[in-house]
Design brief:
The complex is a heterodimer. Chain A is an all-beta fold. Chain A has no helices and nine strands. In chain B, strand 2 (98-107) and strand 3 (112-123) form a beta hairpin. The chains are: A mainly beta, B alpha+beta.
Chain lengths: 92, 216
């Protein structure tokens, strides 16, 4: 039998990797971003949609854009179409 | 003690436990019979045997709380393996081998679930432990909010023949652990995390992997 260790158990709260972060994005009428966090977008590399969990009470509908900013940074942003908010996300 | 015996003691002037304990045992037994003898023994503190404390049940436990309910078996298996590795690295195990281990879960809707396995040969090989308990995850009746793994019983220190030669990579592993210990010492608890890929196929990036704090 195991003797009492004094510090028996640990509950570790697992966190999510690559959580979306709120972003300030200016977009054209067609919805493509022109500025991300006040940096101009110089190239729109790719665009795709993710529609998931439509069968749950928390459906997910996102329009993703992979862009290159003026600083040379690659960034992925998406517009959450359920709340009309913009986010940046790594690992997308 | 029977009421008539209590009354008899009272009439004899024995009103306190200490007074009863001070009487000769044989005299008490003669006057009050087995009932009186037992009361006399209890008054003197019971049997002379050494007091043995109750051994508490398993206390080496690791649990993982998910950000949202998980019903996917593969995800649960990956979380199970991460918990197993963390649990085997706990210093309280002190190189002892695992004889019995249990997996339990807190389920959506407030229920709970638990399965345990006793191994014929105690071991610390993650592969064997995983093979013994991992398939039980398929029996989970509902999505899981928290998964918990527990070393229920360990062998003594000399329970198994130790290896003659250290395993390959053992020294590297020790160095890595020492390095992580130093990082933790300088930056505090929770600063070292392990990334556990739980649903790499997911279209939602934030659900593909979790990070789990490692304080071992």
């Amino acid at each position: 039998m195991v003797t009492h260790s004094g510090n028996p158990g640990t509950v570790r709260a697992a966190g999510r990797l690559n959580q979306p972060r709120a972003a300030v994005v200016e977009a054209r009428v067609d919805g493509t971003p022109v500025r991300v966090n006040r940096q101009p977008v110089v190239l729109l590399r790719e665009e795709w949609r993710v529609i998931d969990r439509w069968w749950t009470e928390e459906p997910l509908s996102r329009r993703y854009f992979e862009v290159v900013l003026q600083s040379g940074e690659n960034a992925v942003v998406f517009r959450d179409e359920t709340c009309s908010c913009w986010f940046t996300q790594r690992g997308a | 003690m029977e009421p008539r015996h209590r009354a008899e003691l009272h009439e004899l002037g024995v009103k306190r436990v200490g007074q009863l304990a001070g009487l000769p045992g044989a005299a008490v037994a003669e006057r009050l019979g087995p009932d009186g003898r037992r009361a006399w023994g209890l008054a003197r503190g019971g049997k002379a045997a050494r007091v043995r404390g109750r051994r508490p049940p398993a206390e080496i436990v690791e649990a993982l709380e998910f950000p949202e309910a998980v019903g996917n078996e593969l995800t649960l298996r990956r979380a199970f393996v991460a918990l197993l590795e963390t649990l085997l690295a706990r210093p309280e195990r002190a190189d002892r081998f695992v004889r019995k281990l249990a997996v339990s879960a807190r389920l959506v809707g407030g229920g709970s679930w638990r399965r345990s396995v006793t191994l014929r040969d105690a071991t610390t090989e993650p592969g064997r432990l995983k093979a013994a308990l991992g398939p039980k995850l398929a029996e989970l009746p509902a999505p899981v909010l928290e998964l918990r793994l527990e070393l229920v019983e360990l062998t003594e220190h000399d329970g198994q023949q130790l290896e003659l030669l250290p395993t390959a990579g053992g020294e590297l592993d020790t160095r890595l652990r020492e390095g992580l210990r130093q990082v933790r010492a300088s930056t505090g608890s929770g600063s070292v995390n392990q990334v556990v890929e739980v649903a790499p196929w997911s279209r939602i990036p934030e659900t593909r992997a979790l990070f789990v704090p490692r304080d071992d």
